[in-house]
Amino acid sequence: LVSITSDSVDTAGDPQPQPTRRASDRTVLMCRPDHFTVSYKINPWMDPKAPTDTAKALAQWQVLYETYLSLGHDVHLIDPLEGLPDMVYSANGGFVLDGKAYGALFTYPERQPEGPAYMDWFRDAGFEVAEPVEVNEGEGDLLLVGDVILAGTGFRTSTRSHEEVARIFDREVVGLTLVDPAFYHLDTAIAVLDPEPVDGRHTIAYLESAFDEASLAVLRERFPDAILVDERDASILGLNSYSDGYNVVIAAAATGFERQLRERGYNPIGVDLSELLLGGGGVKCCTLDLRR
Ligand code: ARG
User: Fold this and answer.
1) Which SUPFAM superfamilies does the annotation name (predicted)?
2) How far apart are CA 148 and CA 169, in angstroms?
3) Which protein residues touch ligand 1 with a CB less than 6 Å away?
C-alpha cells in the first residue's frame, strides 16, 4: 500500500511544510438544471422511481455557481434543453483545450442529443470544434494533468476515442480502466488539484478501488504523492471536485478529503449537491473547463 501519511504528517503529528498553493483564473461552462429529474437509469446512482426536486436542484446548483463567481472565475452558461435532464452535467459536453473543443458522443441514446447542443455552443463561442467519431463523454472521462491527458474507459468513453484525442490535441494520452460501476466516469474517481504545475509537479487525488491493477500501477508511478481518498468520501462523489490550484470546491460531506486537502495546503470549500447526486453527478460533473 502507498502511504499517504508519510509526507503529510510527521511523527510528532505536525503537518510538513507544503508548497505555496496559488489560485489560477478559470473559465468554465455550466448548465442550469431547469429540467433536471431522473427519468431513466444509466448509472447505479439513478432511480427513476425515486422522487426528485427540481427546485432544490436549482437552489443547490445556484450555490455552486455563486461560489465560482465569488472565486473570480469566468462562468459561461449554456441554455438547458427540455427533455435532456442530464444536461446539467456540463463536464460531459466535450473536452476543451488550446481553443479546440472535442465534441461528445454519448454512450446512451438518452443523452445523445446533448452532443450537438454543446458543439453548437462551442462554435458560437468561437472554439474550433472537432466532431467526434468515437464514443466519449468529454471531461467526464478526459482530465488534463499538465501536458498529459488522463483518459478513462470501462463504462462510457471508448479506448478508440483516446486515440482520437491524442491525434486532435497532439498530447500524450494515458488510458485508465475503471472497474466499479458506481465510479463510471474518470472524474468520479480522480480529482486534478493543480491546473498549473507546482514546483514542476501536479497533485491528484483518487480512489484506488475504482481502477484495475494495470491502471493503479500507472497512477502510483506517475503520482507517487497523490492523495488517496477513502471509500466513504468517494461514495458521496467527494472526488468529483473542482480546483483552481488553491480553492477546491468539494462535496461538503467529504470531511476526510477536506482534511487531506487542508494538510496539503489547499482551501477546500464544501457545497451540498445532494439532489444532483441522485443523477450520479457532483461538483465537477457540473463544471466544464474552457481552455483557450
Ligand atoms: N446521469 C449522468 C450520466 O449518467 C451523470 C453524469 C455525471 N457526469 C460526470 N462528469 N461524471 O451520464
Assistant:
1) Pentein
2) 10
3) 42-43, 46, 86, 89, 91-92, 111, 140, 185, 187-188, 279-281, 285
- pTM value is 0.94
Residue with cell 474517481: 189
Contacts of 29 (CB under 8 A, 6+ apart): 75, 76, 77, 78, 90, 93, 121, 287, 288, 290
Enter the C-alpha cell of residue 250.
Answer: 468539494
Q: What is the mean pLDDT of each run of 10 residues along the chain (292 residues)?
A: 44 69 97 98 97 98 98 98 98 98 98 98 98 98 97 98 98 98 98 94 97 98 97 98 98 98 98 98 98 94
ipTM score assigned to the predicted complex: 0.97
Looking at the CA of residue 111, tell me the nearest atom of ligand 1: 12
| Measured CA angle at 80 (ends 193, 118), to 5 deg | 65
Atom of ligand 1 nearest to the CA of 43: 4
d(CA 282, CA 75): 17
